[in-house]
Amino acid sequence: MAPALSQIQKEAQLSARKFAEDVLKPAAQRVDTEAEFPSDAVRAMADLGFTGLSVPEEYGGLNRDALTICLVTEELARGCPSTAGVLMAFVIGIQPIVRFGTAEQKRTYLPDLAIAKRSICFAVTEAHTGSDVSAISTTAKREGDGWRLSGVKTLIGNAVNADLCILAAKTDAGVSVFIVDARSPGYSVSKVYEKMGMRGTTTGEITLDNVHVPNLGLVGVEGRGASLLLGTLDLARLTLAAEAIGIAQRALEEALSYSLQRSTFGKQISEYQAIQFMIADMATSIHASRVMLHDACQLADGGQSFTREAAMVKLFSSEMANRAADTALQVRGGWGLVDRSTVERLYRDARYTRIWEGTSEIQRLVIFRSLLKTERGG
Ligand SMILES: Cc1cc2nc3c(=O)[nH]c(=O)nc-3n(C[C@H](O)[C@H](O)[C@H](O)COP(=O)(O)OP(=O)(O)OC[C@H]3O[C@@H](n4cnc5c(N)ncnc54)[C@H](O)[C@@H]3O)c2cc1C
User: Fold this and answer.
1) What is the pLDDT of residues 312-344, one digit of tens each?
2) How far apart are CA 217 and CA 44, in angstroms?
3) Ligand 1: residues within 6 Å at CB?
């Protein structure tokens, strides 16, 4: 059963709902059409404490649990999926420092990140590999008091706006994780991608040409970067599921309200059982996703392993959000497909959730491997 929300969780949810309703919803269409990075909304989210949700209080954050982060993400995504995506990039980029950083790294980076004075991106993907982290070819070679990094990272969310980049590179010991200052000589955003959805987020290519990174830049243990990244991805998958649920919830609201306005053959379309069943199925799948998400968050917040549950809820919710957006378009008929309707935008935005933070196929691999481990007594 899903856990009851605490007072703090309810307050965060309500605050995000109000912000989404008052600020994000009215701007969402423009953010999409103009592919406009929502900088004002990011500043407002910093004032509300959202950018520092996962940062410990001693470094200026709110130190909230996974469930609170997901409740906030769902509400923001209901208002504007792109803006929620920008917040997700923050939460995910900050995680390696929060979980694996040294006291010096935390002191150096977290206070500015918590209030969005600086922003961050998380760069693993390269042109030839997204799903297989071990196949990256960006290198980090030891040199004097630090490292020299070279390589090209592709499809990186928030790349354009980031002051810092958490990235994966290979050292002699294997995949390792570094924090790189985007102002370092040799670091550049070499391309910005045009996107079909989530158009308020920026996505770019980052080139590292012999970039010097001081010793302070190595996060966690050299060569153990793959497990560090996978640990970070578990939380990222929960927030991604929350994003998908927010998109689906908005699709449901749009479908329901349209069904009450539109008439055919002398009746509101909401009076047809075909339409009622579509909407009832959407609501049922959203509820199932939410229960799964809250259950996975409970495991995460209780300090238990939640890799399998994170993959399951990410898979289920992202596939569900795509079906929900498709159904909402169907309910709206031809009017959903012209003049940039809200449901058309949701349909395009939802598509990203099946790719981000590991594709649906990769989630199935994670789930199957976890089942196998249990079967073999692991
Ligand atoms: C807008 C956007 C923002 C992004 N932001 C970031 C970011 O901030 N940081 C970052 O590092 N990356 C980011 N990515 C990259 C994203 O994580 C990858 O696109 C994703 O992981 C898939 O990798 P790929 O595109 O290389 O596909 P591939 O790994 O080449 O996969 C291609 C297809 O093969 C399937 N496949 C691959 N391996 C297997 C397997 N073993 N079994 C079955 N099927 C398999 C996949 O599911 C997919 O359908 C972003 C992508 C987009 C589009």
Assistant:
1) 999 999 999 999 999 999 999 999 999 999 999
2) 29
3) 121-125, 129-131, 155-157, 195, 198, 203, 352, 355-356, 358-359, 361-362, 365
| Phi, psi angle pair for 11, to nearest 5° | -65, -40
Q: What is the CATH number of domain 226-375?
A: 1.20.140.10
Phi first, then psi, for residue 215 (nearest 5°) are -55, -35
In terms of CATH architecture, what is 7-114? Orthogonal Bundle (1.10)
Tokens of 333: 């008929």
Whole-Å CA distances, 129 to 85, 132, 152, 352: 22, 6, 11, 17
Give start-end residues of each CATH 2.40.110.10 domain in the chain. 120-223
pLDDT digit string, tens, across residues 26-57: 999 999 999 999 999 999 999 999 999 999 99
Catalytic pick from 75, 344, 357, 375?
357
Listed in order, the ranges of the chain carrying CATH 1.10.540.10 are: 7-114
Please tell me the CATH superfamily of domain 120-223, with its number.
Answer: Butyryl-CoA Dehydrogenase, subunit A, domain 2 (2.40.110.10)
